[in-house]
Amino acid sequence: MPAPAPIDPRGPRFNQAVLSVALLTGFLVDWRPVVPLFALVLLAGAALGPKYGPFLVFYAKVIRPRLAPPAEMEDPRPPRFAAAVGVVFLTAGALAFAAGHAGLGWALALMVAALAGLSAATGICVGCEIYLVLARRRPVAG
Predict the structure, then answer these.
(1) φ/ψ (deg, to 5) at 2
(2) Is the model's pTM score more than 0.90?
(3) Which domain covers residue 55, as residue numbers?
(4) In a domain, 132, yes or no
(5) Taking the C-alpha atoms of 125, 127, 130 and 135 in order, what is their torsion angle to the nearest 10 degrees?
(6) 48-81: per-residue pLDDT in tens?
(7) Cβ distance 106 to 93 under 8 Å?
(8) Count of structural domains within the chain
(9) CA 42/CA 63 separation, integer angstroms
(10) How many CA atoms lie within 13 A of 37 on its CB side?
(11) d(Cα 98, Cα 32) in Å, to the nearest integer?
(12) pLDDT tens per residue, range 75-87
């Protein structure tokens, strides 16, 4: 199976910055709907690709045309995996809120916010690194 077309790595970093700020703001004002809302935002990009993530589309159509080309492109699979992990945590957080466990809901959401913020600020994507470790452990057909 051929590798997917490479992507501009600044798109996922922009998406992660928006996610981090939104979740932190939601926490500060105790607006719990931000958690399932951003689970859906991440799900769109993770499951369907960057053409369906609203902030990825905004980056591609509005911000990227104003920037110089990226120094290098990246494989979209690691950031999509990281987004899928974020979906799992945010969905678990939303379920915790629904079950009356606000502390657990915010703890899960704030873990996502912290890791997304780390990635946005430094380029260190923990979910992407996990993907790479798992990909190296997969057996290769020969």
Answers:
(1) -70, 150
(2) yes
(3) 10-137
(4) yes
(5) -100
(6) 888 899 999 999 999 999 999 999 999 999 999 9
(7) yes
(8) 1
(9) 19
(10) 11
(11) 10
(12) 999 999 999 999 9
